[in-house]
Amino acid sequence: MVRGCRGLGAGRWGWALLAFLGVLPAGPALAGEQLFVAVPGNWEEAWRHETPQQVIVEYLPPGTTVTDWTDMVTTQEFPGAHVDVLQYLDKVAAAFGAGCKAARHEGPRASTENGYDVALAYLECREPDPSKAAPGVVLKSVEFLAIKAIQGLKGLHVVQRAWHGDDPAQHPLQSANAKDWVAVVRDAELCDLADTSRTCRTVGRTGGLTQ
Known about the structure:
Layout: H1 14-20, E1 33-37, E2 44-50, E3 55-60, E4 71-79, H2 85-98, E5 100-113, E6 116-128, E7 142-151, E8 155-165, H3 178-186, E9 189-192, E10 208-210
Antiparallel strand pairs: 1-9, 1-10, 2-3, 3-4, 4-8, 5-6, 6-7, 7-8
């Protein structure tokens, strides 16, 4: 299994799940389609991994690292890949929960945005199996993950935000900013800047942009 994301999140299964679904990316995505994500303004790109088949970028707040973190946003692109996004997130949920003492999930739910097929899910893991963590990662007892898959015309895009901690009282859904926390993933959009029928409502909003 190829591990992309250095945290516990679903990025570690991305490429492996595409292979499991029988999808082989055909090559680099063509210019035009853009993924807009409102990464918090003071966050920084902490890690990037690029191959012709996959691009993964991890964003973290200042003072945290890819081996010791609490809150992380990850974007993934699979140029040329075409999948059923609902089936894809079903597999992510199953793989995510397999390494946990207790797991639960909401969704995935399918919809259409800007003419693209989209699926969104929320996953939670309690007491993760230490053997599933990447080398050097500080393992914590709870992980919550919001994840969205968007099937573009030229490739698959996946956006996720993960919270990783030992105190359930600090769970992001328990905070006053829960809606904003979730919105980073929920409102992520794929657009085609050359196609007026696929224009993002988020163009011009402060946030991260992957190409």
